[in-house]
Amino acid sequence: MKNLLKSWQGTRTGHDVPESDDAAHRLAVFEDIERGHAGWFWATDAAGRLSYISPAACERFGAAAEALIGQPFTALFETDPENPGERSDRPLQFLFGSHARLADVTVRLVPDRCGPGGRPGWWALSGQPKIGVAKPGSDGAFHGYRGSARDITVEYERRIEDSRLAEFDSLTGLANRHRITRRFEQMLSAFRGTMRPATLMMLDLDRFKHVNDTLGHPAGDELLRQVAQRLIKVVGTVGEIGRLGGDEFQILLPDQEDRGKLGELADKIIALISQPYRIDDNHVVIGVSVGMAIAPFDGTEREEIVRAADLALYAAKHGGRGQFRFYSTDLKDEKEERRQLEDALRDALATVDSAVDNWEEPQLAMVYQPVVRTEDHLVVGFEALMRWEHPSRGAISPAVFIPVAEDTGLILQLGAWALRQSVRDAMAWPKTLRVAVNVSAVQFAHPSFPATVAEVLESTGLDPDRLELELTESVFMGDGEATDAAFKALKALGVRLALDDFGTGYSSLSYLRAAPFDKLKVDRSFVESCTLTDQNSAKIIAAIIGLADALGMETTVEGVEAFDQRDVVCAKGARLIQGYLYSPPLDQATVLERMRSEELRIPPDGPRRHRPERRLVYRRIGVIHEDHRYEALLRNLSATGAGIEGLVGVPLGASLVLDLGAGQLAVVSVSRSEEASIGVEFETPLVSDGAGGLVTRYRASPYALAAAARMASSSTPQFMEVEVRKRA
Ligand code: C2E
Ligand code: CA
Ligand code: CA
Description:
- Helix content is 37%, strand content 26%.
- By secondary structure, it is α+β, with helices and mostly antiparallel strands.
- The protein folds into 4 domains: 2-159, PAS domain (Beta-Lactamase), CATH 3.30.450.20; 168-331, Alpha-Beta Plaits (2-Layer Sandwich), CATH 3.30.70; 336-596, Alpha-Beta Barrel (TIM Barrel), CATH 3.20.20.450; 615-721, Thrombin, subunit H.
- Helix 17 packs parallel to helix 18.
- The radius of gyration is 36 Å and the shape is elongated.
- The site of ligand C2E has 24 residues, from strand 15, helix 14, helix 15 and strand 19.
């Protein structure tokens, strides 16, 4: 203390004051201040090493003075690395380096310098450089710092907490809209210079509103908290998660551009979020849709990326739930298209509404796909499937319009019509044949559903045992009591219940215990891959059939297209099959015509082996060889290869780059070349775009493309471009 005081006085007066009564008095005052914990003093030498620190400070830090004295000051103290406003130790080092005056700089002792029982605390640090100006012959050299520090722990922590509240969502603890927006803005501007990529993932929960409406807001809040926990679990440290409000979430993924990996991450998120939740005494099941956009490929400004991810999310939601989508330029019109689809569907419904007189052709129809007994090819029933023929657009798939109908509530009318029409048609079939009707979860959840079924049965006179309702696991969402009541009411009517798409959703065995199903339908996706050797699908099919047998339920295996698939599923115990191998869905007139004999048998007929699909496409692409670019036609495309037409003279083994558009460049080698048609194999397989399409994992950044466009080619082309026409 004496030393400090001496140098202190030295700074202030320029003279070494001899110890006097006055000095002793000052010393006593300083010592009181130090002991009273109101503050403490510190000093460094010219090299910035701590040369003095108040004993009271050491006490608070739980550290011995020897452990601190002699250490570089800026290694001992730090500004807040967590506090977004202040950058970590930079300013302190900077101030020290430039010998600047320190005024209330907020620091703490680096936490691992604390001894047992000590606390780093937060301190407002002030200090003066000691410059030897006053000494005779002095050169103005810097002799170190002298300073004081004041404890501001309480205020500082309150301030941090307040700003945390302003930055984080109090319900889930995730970043709020404000923070995530700012973080993304910062990330993009920092990445722009270095051309680093970043992905924005937007999430929207499916059916969250339903939970909120039926179980109440506290349950909705609890659900959001659990969703947040699951997101933290999957995303880990690769990204920052934010909740924008309601059931909307965003995830920022710096340095991510690999669409293969991003697709896997999205799939993981979808799988985990779709697992059932336990809230109070209810089982709650929701889904999630994911849209992704990647900077700089889909845009370089935050607004652009957000808009792109939003369009992708929109497409994911409406492409059938529980999907992810990457942004692509053709999504731009999808929103508008959907609005038109809603209107068109309303019009279509009017064409079959018996309450209005209309002269228009009916746009909606039911078709019936046979369910065949494998042992003797006997048809035991039909599944009713809806068809929509739009006057100008042609056939629109139910996979497209059913979700639209669900969102708009049109499904109630549409479903009631389908049920009535199917039951009426079934009345014209032999009495041994059943009709299976698909029931949307939205329809099922409506309190009037059992009454609608009862009314249809009564007005048509169909034996209830001939009517099978196909439900999916999503009927178990939300209010357990209402679901139970609906099941009871339907069973009381005597209709049969089938669980559709089994194995794809949440597949909780407790559903099977809780609900009185007569049948499980094994989803087509298992059949699709059951002939591939490295898949578990065949085993899963066997397990589902075994499970159904044990519980006394029937099974139907869906989507069998080839003999090899039939052989596998039969070996696994399948007794009922529905699939193109036996028959596509048929219209009522065809069914009746085939039904002229009492017993309808359909032998299997189709390809011997199932071949994973090579999508047929006709698309103009660029083919780059050396520094020349050719135009060609992409004829077919799979994950591993493609067929291309329009180039003559391409040697086998040649290495080409395909320009598939929008920065998608793929390196390929030529594996087949006949006249104007070549086959190529991808060096890196393509990955799913989330919507049944294929995309390259990576894209060339717009910067690289711009640079490439500036390079003109001067060499002569080696291949000949020829015009090819579409084949039928
Ligand atoms: P789903 O209930 O799983 O119906 C089976 C789908 O698989 C039908 O598609 C059928 O045509 C198709 N399919 C049958 N055999 C094969 C095969 O061997 N290979 C392949 N690749 N596909 C096969 P569809 O008619 O396009 O219907 C799609 C979905 O739309 C249905 O899936 C169902 O969820 C929904 N849907 C159709 N009609 C109705 C309806 O009247 N009401 C409701 N709520 N949903 C319906
Ligand atoms: Ca079905
Ligand atoms: Ca199905």
